[in-house]
Amino acid sequence: MYSRIKVPGKTPLAGLVLAGALLVSAGAALALPPEHEIQRLMLAVEESVQEDQWGQAAEYLNRLQRIEGEKPAEYLYYRGQVMARSQHYNEALSALENYVAGTGADGEHYREALKLITRIEKERSSQSGGSDQSSDEPVAEIAPAGAAASEGQGASAGVANTGALVSRLNRLFDQAGWRRDARLIREGSSPDILYRVSVSNGELSFRESRREDGRRQLSTLTLPVYGISPMIEWDCENATESCWIYDPRDNSRFLRLGNDRDKAGQLASTLGQLIRQLQRPSGGN
């Protein structure tokens, strides 16, 4: 039941109207600008983790994911913690590796992130009987100790590493194609959306093959590697039976994948490695 508010010189009805306007004004004040809402939710995530409220922390992280705007590096660290807690190890490793790569040794949680990566690797290895089955193959070769590499050999190694990353991405794309009917995943079935990636002149090209009305339509999506963050964000939605790789330029949806969290996490991590490789002075030569 509403109580009447008496305002000098106003009727009780006018007081009610004023009270309603004040409530509307107060409600509007709660709609924080994105940069402040991001900071508020980050503090909520940190507090939830400190209090071992992992489900609550995950909810805040999901809300952060939906907000457009630059997020602090700690977002990836806490995402890694929460995903590790729920045993989504590939997603956890992707977030933690991107955190370490983005902040370096100056990161506030640098040492904790490295320790957590090691713990995740041990836990994942123990669950798979001592062999890490989630990684397809090494994406970089290690030269023998003491081997003297010339400048030309170093450049060749960089090209080989880029090629290995591209090959791994394309194998993952083959496994992570999106289907309108997820029940049709069987050997020989072709996804409704499939990507192939290539590198040219400091730019990534994603050839999209999309099936519409029984016919294949081809298009190309491009992504310049210079001036963008190699920390690739991604997410999965049960409502659309899809996982999405987000565009590092504006955090919009970029590549649509099947609803497989492990494959999406591996793709995002490998794509970030490829971008970092190409951003090096000799990475794309």
Strand content: 15-25%
Number of strands: 6
SSE string, helices as H and strands as E: HHHHHHHEEEEEEH
User: Fraction of residues in helices?
Assistant: 40-55%
Strand line-up in the sheet with most strands? 1-2-3
Indicate the structural class: alpha+beta
Radius of gyration: 24 Å
Q: Number of DSSP helices?
A: 8
- Spans of 5+ residues with little confidence (pLDDT < 50)? 1-29, 131-160
Shape by Cα distribution: globular
For the sheet with most strands, the description reads: 3 strands, antiparallel
Q: CA-to-CA gap between the ends? A: 74 Å
Mean pLDDT: 75
Describe this structure in words.
This protein is α+β, with helices and mostly antiparallel strands. Helices cover 48% and strands 15% of the residues. It is built from eight helices and six strands. A three-stranded antiparallel beta sheet has the order 1-2-3. A three-stranded antiparallel beta sheet has the order 4-5-6, with helices on one face.
Helices, strands, pairings?
Elements: H1 12-29, H2 34-50, H3 54-65, H4 74-85, H5 89-103, H6 110-127, H7 151-175, E1 193-200, E2 203-212, E3 215-224, E4 234-237, E5 242-246, E6 253-258, H8 261-279
How would you summarize this macromolecular structure in one to three sentences?
48% of the residues lie in helices and 15% in strands. The chain has helices at 12-29, 34-50, 54-65, 74-85, 89-103, 110-127, 151-175, 261-279; strands at residues 193-200, 203-212, 215-224, 234-237, 242-246, 253-258.
